[in-house]
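Sequence only, no structure available. Ideas?
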Amino acid sequence: MKLKKWLYYLIKLRDKIFIPFAILYILMAALGIYLLEPKTFESYLTSIYWVLTTLATVGFGDYTPVTDAGKAYTIFLYISGIGLVGVFIGKVINSIYLIDKLKMGGKMKYTGKNHIILIGWSAKSKLAIEEIVKSDKKIDIVIIDDVEKVPILAERMFYIRGNASDEKTLLDANLPKATGVIIFADQITQDNYARKDPLLVDGKTLLIATAITTIEEKYHKSIHVTAEVIHQNHIPLFKHVKVDEFIPTEEMISHAAVRSLFSHGVTYMFSELMSTQYGEAMYEIPKHDEWQTYRDAFFDLLSKGATLVADRGDLHINQKLDDKIPDNAQLFVICDKETLEQLNTNTIQ
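Reply:
I predicted one. Tokens follow.
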């Protein structure tokens, strides 16, 4: 048993030291021919080039040894080095294959920052990705789920496979350096168990939110978390964890459906507010120094092509135009992206 362990250790050690050994062999071989024939190989870089072309059996013939010592040295390189380079190339190709396999299987850690994490893969996740890309094409998106292979292949898209309530999985997704997290209700639990026990779906979301809160406290980070809940009456259960915003799925769908009966076409308005596909959407803007009251902000924004609609969750701006805007105001407007960029540019200036 000890012999088997020792042999296994030697095999692993061989794999670890092979590539460094191959590089050292090439450098030493280049040094050898450089010392033997400095007139033929006028620089050390030239000798490295010759060794590589020789061992790769390319043999351009632009540099060749002219002395007997140099020719004997070349024969030695043929015997000892050609197989080594072949194995070296094979190792490199195999390493690339393994890296690609790990990435496809969600086993590679994400090391970037300022990314968005989507927890749970479903049709809603796919639509969310499309919406994120429309809003910011340069941001990285990390998906956490437990499917066998990466659910979507796209630029700036990364996959971490694992249980999102597990700290290691969240750290593999580099949660402490993320801009925000969206927790989608688990689709499998929702499809198979929601009717038997309505608590199960939102209960899993609560576990994930708890794990995120634990990491935030541990690393002293504040990350914006949005969670989808199936039943609005479950939201109070989240009071001990940090979730910034909730999406009560069933209540929102029911409300929109009912309002569409009494106010035909209202769902188009909801769709426009929640999506950028119509050109205009709701955006947050910073408070300008020259705005003292909501009236100042309302008419100034209106003249620039934007409509002030809310301060945080307060939608009654039109009833309090003469009220002073608080310093911690969080203003939301409806406008197109060009207008938003203009407003942000004016703020910076």
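The mean pLDDT is 82.
Hope that gets you unstuck.
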